[in-house]
Amino acid sequence: MISFHTCPLASKEGKETGGMNVYVLELSKALARSGVDVDIYTRSQDEANPPIEEIIPHLRLIHLPAGPKKTIEKKLLAQYIPEFTNAFLAFTQEYTLTYDVLHCHYYLSGLIGLEINKKKEKRYPIIMTFHTLALMKNLVARDEFEKEELERINAEILLTQQATHIFAPSDSDMNYLEYLYQADIHKISVIPPGVDTALFKPMDKEEAKKAIGAKKEDKILLFVGRIEPLKGLDMLLYAVKVLIMKNPELSVCLWIVGGDILQKKELWSHQLKMLQQLKEILNLSTHVRFLGQKTQEELPRYYNAAEMVIMPSHYESFGMVTLEAMACGVPVITTNVAGVSQLIDKQHAALITSVNNPLLLASQIKFLLTNDAAHKQMSKDLQEKAQDLSWDVIVNKIINVYDSI
Questions:
Q1: N or C: which end of the chain has fewer CB within 10 A?
Q2: How many domains does one find in the chain?
Q3: What distance in Å separates the CA atoms of residue 173 and residue 58, rounded to the nearest whole number?
Q4: How would you class 344 by CB atoms within 10 Å of its CB: exposed for 0-12, middle for 13-18, buried for 19 or more?
Q5: Residues 217, 79 share a domain
Q6: Residue 76, pLDDT score
Q7: Are 187 and 165 in contact (CB under 8 A)?
Q8: Do the domain assignments include residue 14?
Q9: Buried b (16+ CB within 10 A) or exposed e, 298-331
């Protein structure tokens, strides 16, 4: 595994994490449990990072030097690809290591895979998982600062041509790769992420509320994810305002998990500051709470304490949060642009909303809050569906592709 720009253990290292961190770590652990030897290579971002870290039997994490040992903005990391590539080749030579497959995560890691093969007599098969696509991010970007640069787009086009195989998390991402990037559909496998069903499972709601410091009567609407514009959090705040104005009798609150709120407010990210300002403009100070980052181990209690999880994204290649909530037996309202929405059938159409439609979202939230029978049935159905996407099931599909190449 190559995960150049972000370490799969980032949450334990005090860094903000997203779905890719969880995906790489949990897939690697599932492979290791299946007897596959896995090394994850990532950039060392801290002097305290050990060069080699044993995670579980058959699985190691290897920190390689590439640029200053500190957090660096993603767009500035390409310049350190040659250093990382040389460090990889030196490490594998020193320990006489060879691999059957290089599985590269995000376009920067893919470029490293190509560079490694340029310097080897026997080339490795390269499997690419993009996680997000630049053209789709640019489609929903709201200003020039959010847009991905031409260098990334060109790199993704190159990788779709040169990778041995590509994993897409959903049919929609496969279609974008085929039609926008002109990728060969025969070398794309649609395999969704898995979920740790031993960690994410139903628990008593009152106990969960007590564990996270919520009141018994709180009706919690939960958002979990990175605090960035394409997640659609401003639309969610609008929807909560509409819901409260139309239904003052409903005792609802929105809890937002994500973002670094431990700093002074003047040091918050631009997006966090904007959402805080919007919260005040809409007079939602008593209804909306920013909770900051939570570990994977903490999240099940937050999911189980919530009435529902809401993912109002403008673009989401899949949406692992949705899967985690489903495994806990908690209904999820997601936009129709998220890859995970394809798992939700017509029978559960009330769980699919549209982008930037706070009136519709408010009515869907109210329906779930006030219709106990529908809420219980959807919770049960979604939890059953999540069992089919446990990592133990998904990893066999991944291994079959590794074997085939």
A1: C
A2: 2
A3: 31
A4: buried
A5: no
A6: 92
A7: yes
A8: no
A9: ebbbbbbbbbbbbbbbbbbbbbbbbbbbbbbbbb
Do the domain assignments include residue 40? Answer: yes
Say whether both 49 and 143 belong to one domain: yes
Is 143 domain-assigned?
yes
Residue 63 has pLDDT above 90, yes or no: yes
User: Does residue 107 sit in the same domain as residue 235?
Assistant: no
Find the mean pLDDT for residues 372-384.
88
Identify the pLDDT of residue 288: 96
Are residue 185 and residue 235 in the same domain, yes or no? no
* pTM, entire model: 0.91
> What local confidence, expressed as pLDDT, does residue 41 receive?
98
Most confident among 297-301, 320-324, 333-337, 344-348 (mean pLDDT) = 297-301
State phi, psi for 179 to the nearest 5 degrees. -90, -35
- For residue 313, give every residue at least 6 positions away whose Cβ sits within 8 Å of its Cβ, in sequence order, or none: 225, 230, 231, 232, 319, 334, 335, 337, 338, 355
Which domain covers residue 326, as residue numbers?
205-387
What's the pLDDT score for residue 10? 78
Provide the residue type at 363 as one letter: S
Q: Is residue 15 scored above 60 in pLDDT?
A: no
- Residues 250, 361 within the same domain: yes
- Residue located via tokens 């031409």: 150
Same domain, 54 and 164: yes
**Contact between 220 and 214 (Cβ < 8 Å):** yes
Q: Looking at the domain assignment, is residue 7 inside a domain?
A: no
For the chain, how many residues are written? Answer: 405
Tokens representing 271 are 């997006």
Residues 33 and 146 both lie in one domain: yes
Q: What is the CATH number of the domain that holds 274?
A: 3.40.50.2000
- Which whole number is the average pLDDT over 16-43? 92
